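Please check what follows.
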Amino acid sequence: MKADVDTEAVFPDDVREEKPKELTAGDRIWHEVISWFWVILAFLFIEGTLVQARVIPSGSMEKTVLIGDHLIVSRIGYDAGIPFTNIHVPLWRNPKRQQIIVFRAPLPEQGFPDFIKRTIGLPGDTIEIKQGVVYINGTALAEPYRPDPPNALENRGPYKVPAGDYFMMGDNRENSYDSRYWGFVPRENIIGTPLMIYMSIDAPEEVWEPGHIGERFETYLNAVIHPSEVRWKRLFHIF
């Protein structure tokens, strides 16, 4: 008959399984801080180099984009920077003709606001507007995206686009504050190009302007209560 095994001898004190150490309040706070640090870092990386969310506050690009359209804007290849600062670096991609672009308007007195327009003139182009028709280097530009016929009274130019600059115009020419008024957009001011409409809410223009946080919150709440305020057919439109 086998002798009883002395468990104390087989499993000495120094190799027994120990109970997990309970975290102190300070440990839990530190772990929470570290978790939020990584979340914030990921947000800054995505916002600064990959994509941004933007909302359209004016009708300068109707009918292509409407007031209240919420866009996902791609910065990939165009621009990289630190969000909420003026630190950024232009990357390797350049706008193509008639591509929609988000950029910092060359308006220092207004704090370089972000605009969305269509790229009409590339570096080296000569732009002229005759009876509302845009001519690029002497050739009329086909613009099927314009919501209305050209204004036959408009005659502007010619404008010679410098190297490294772009000439931007809104699709809704009668309601667009663009390069016709404030000049060319330097390449380093370009942020990116829209990818998709992820939300579109029918609400007054002033709701989407900077500083109207309360009105914007009420608009989102109203859209939940009254879903008809959402332009459902515009959701997930790809540019």
Q: What stands out?
A: The chain has a mean pLDDT of 87.
